[in-house]
């Protein structure tokens, strides 16, 4: 995992980083989330409504603007029993195991996710053997390790406890065990939602994973003395997170915005896809006016389809947004060059970017085109011809490198 790093992040950013593209528009989990739009959910096995776990992912106001020092670092990203090789001599297992299939490896993952996912992956194969009372006891034990797990199979009780202890011992070495424990309910929530939407999960077990996610949401809200049944007003408090942009009118829930997406109407689905993955990576994204929500997952290899529906326009002009937001990303395509570049609004906005306001401009190229003049000289992230996984990795990695100063950043000439 490397040395402990604890950037301050808000709750939706912590959850999105763990969910990745699993809740992207059009995904199975996104469709399941659409069935639970309110602040609470009713789940089998509970005698009262519980906080809706999807609400904590969607709405920063639901967690009342809580920001947490969040353990991030190197992690496997998909830890389960088939990805762990151990030697045949059991006595050497703890020192000589190997992890395989590193396709989801990342250097800035939320570190509480991997051990939590390992436990839930084992539980997904074990629930069929558990009685209703044992299923309830498992949720209770996952959320409170001090409870007696004697009702569970002994191996399962020990397994849950040993995985938890291993993570806490690592955090305790840095004197940060309480911060680790504070973060665990959010990883339980994210991993439970992952299992809830996973195709391999048995239909009769999906409700249990939603129940676990809702109980984890309740535990987190109770831990921070937040109302479990109402939506709090978003706060504008900013406490040292990786997001350092200003609070912009029309921004996401009134929180600091890092990135403005400028795009054509024809590329709204691309912009939604780009914005989703940047949000999952911890950025706060401000879409341009009239950015439509496609309602479906976007495959970069597909041709764009007409947009359906739409959102209410923002109350901030493009020029004002460019002047206030640290990063402006242009979704570059022939449609952008013909529809947006050179328009009166565009001409008003982009001279402001070169007038000393500090905006950093990057083009995200999604189709072959030749941008004219200075627009062709700024920093560019090229996604043309890439698969969805390659495009996501290229976008997130390149933007992280630019943010961290590992690449040049283009600005229009002054």
Automatic annotation (TrEMBL):
Gene Ontology annotations of biological process type: signal transduction
Annotated TIR domain residues: 259-395
Pfam families: TIR_2 (PF13676)
InterPro entries from the UniProt entry: TIR_dom (IPR000157), Toll_tir_struct_dom_sf (IPR035897)
Protein name (record): Toll/interleukin-1 receptor domain-containing protein
Species the sequence originates in: Candidatus Frankia alpina
tRNA processing listed as a keyword: no
Organism classification: Bacteria, Bacillati, Actinomycetota, Actinomycetes, Frankiales
Annotated stretches, region: Disordered: 291-312
Keyword Ligase (UniProt): no
Compositionally biased intervals (Basic and acidic residues): 294-308
Key words of the record: Receptor
